[in-house]
Amino acid sequence: MKHSFLEGNVSISDDVIPLVSTRINFKDFMGAVMVRWGINRDNYRISPGLYAFGNPDQESDVFVTANYKLTFDNLRKNLSGLDGWILVLDTKGVNVWCAAGKGTFGTIELVNRIKLVSLEKFVNHKRLILPQLGATGVAAHKVKEETGFNVHYGPVRASDIKRFIRDGYRADKEMRRVTFGFKDRIKLIPNDFIYGKFYLLGAMAVIFLISGVSSKGFSYKDFSGEGGPGILKVFLAYFSGIVITPMFLPYIPGRHFSLKGFYAGVLVFLILIFLKFTGGNVFEIISWFLIITAISSFLAMNFTGSSTFTSLSGVKKEMKISVPLQIGFALIGTILMVVGKFI
Amino acid sequence: MKDLMYLPDVVTLNLCEATCNGCGMCLKVCPHGVFELSGKKAHIVRRDYCMECGACALNCQVQAITVNSGVGCAAGIINGILRNSEPTCGCSDSKSNCC
Fold first, then answer.
1. How many whole angstroms separate alpha carbon B98 and alpha carbon A39?
2. For the domain bounded by A6-176, which CATH number is listed?
3. Which of A108, A10, A29, A110 is nearest to A67 (CA)?
4. Are B15 and B54 in the same domain?
5. Which domain does B79 fall in, by range?
6. Per-residue b/e over A120-143, b at no fewer than 16 CB within 10 Å?
7. What is the ipTM of this complex?
8. CA distance B44 to chain A (A)
């Protein structure tokens, strides 16, 4: 398949290496927008192997990256004006950090890929520049042992690469730190929003069914009258856990993500009370409190995986306390809601 | 922006300073500035910021660092329990949703 990022080829003796553009075009932009919304995300990848950019020679740097196209695009657009090589590893279309965590962006794949493309034919130096976050999967000293190539861990962000090179292949403290600012968090929200759709639809279905229950059995009138508002409340709880909590993450009290999600859920609940949107029945009000906070808390807890600073030990500890509470809240809330219908 | 910190006193990170050869690799690979170098040895200075990614331990030539590394991801832990395996984000192989 002809990719729009290819500009032609570079011939080195008998080998033909694809030359890539360092410009992002409209198609790349649209592809990025779509994967952020979860569209074509599992298959947004390019072929692993060696690529050229600019006008590289045997002295040029080699940048190693993943074959997730969003990652590849982010790298090449930050290399404009430079000349060099890009060695793309087969990470199954996953970004560098996640792939490194799984080991696909790893020592074995890097060593094999260096041998497969015969990298020593194209450069007469032994410098490889890897993104720092690849270090979770790559043991630099083992790569050296197996191939002779020296792994230099570059900055965390591709946008710092030029500064890294200018400073003599050195990254300062700031370039080595992962951040998780507002923009970083916002970018993740659409995909999480789409990814959790089955939780959302499941919860909506349960609430919709309960809305039809009355002391007279199931009735269509109740479905149509209460089902809609019920579904809307579930949606707001979902929004609270998946959108509000990530957006305001550093400003919501608590360290546990589930607690942050609980607070966001409480806020949504209070707004609903204020708008007199929770019904007048005490059982119904309490049940909505429990259900909204349980949903919001659970989904906010899942944002630990999208965040850049939570540890496995920490998440396990958090879940031991939070998951039983979330299940308890959801169960009691559902039971109270049904009981309220008969009183 | 101030650094975000998760739960205190949970991290399994360990550094044997006697074994450390002071190469400084852990300082380079750590994304949260957990280590500092002084007196030709690395020291853990921001333990509670560690996210157990395992980059330092993997890149330590003398194996002075140990950490029980893995994904700090609730969905991944649930996945692991459901599949009776190690915690893993749903983002593996061809079906990917990375955390």
1. 14
2. 3.40.50.11600
3. A110
4. yes
5. 71-99
6. eebbeeeebbbbbbbbbbbbbbbb
7. 0.90
8. 16
Cβ pair A311:B61 closer than 8 A: no
Dmax (CA) for chain A in angstroms is 86
Task: For A10, list phi and psi in degrees, rounded to 5.
Answer: -120, 125
* Domain map (residue ranges) of chain A: 6-176, 182-341
Judge contact between B29 and A153, C-beta under 8 A. yes
Same-domain status, B78 and B44: no
Residue A9 and residue A69: Cα distance in Å, rounded?
Answer: 19
Residue corresponding to tokens 């290819």: A6
Q: Are A143 and A105 in contact (CB under 8 A)?
A: no
Q: How many domains is chain B partitioned into structurally? A: 2
- What pLDDT score was predicted for residue A255? 96
Taking CA atoms, A150 is separated from A116, B42, B60, in Å, by 17, 22, 15
Which residues in chain A have their CB less than 8 angstroms from residue B35's CB?
none
State how far the Cα of B5 lies from the Cα of A255, in Å rounded to an integer: 8
A129 Cβ neighbours under 8 A, 6+ residues apart? A61, A62, A63, A64, A152, A154, A161, A169
A301/B52 CB distance under 8 A: no
Q: Are residues B91 and B61 in the same domain?
A: no
The residue among A311, A326, A327 with the most chain B CBs within 10 A of its CB, best to mutate, is A311
Q: Which pLDDT tens digit goes with each residue over A142-189?
A: 999 999 999 999 999 999 999 999 999 999 999 999 999 999 999 999
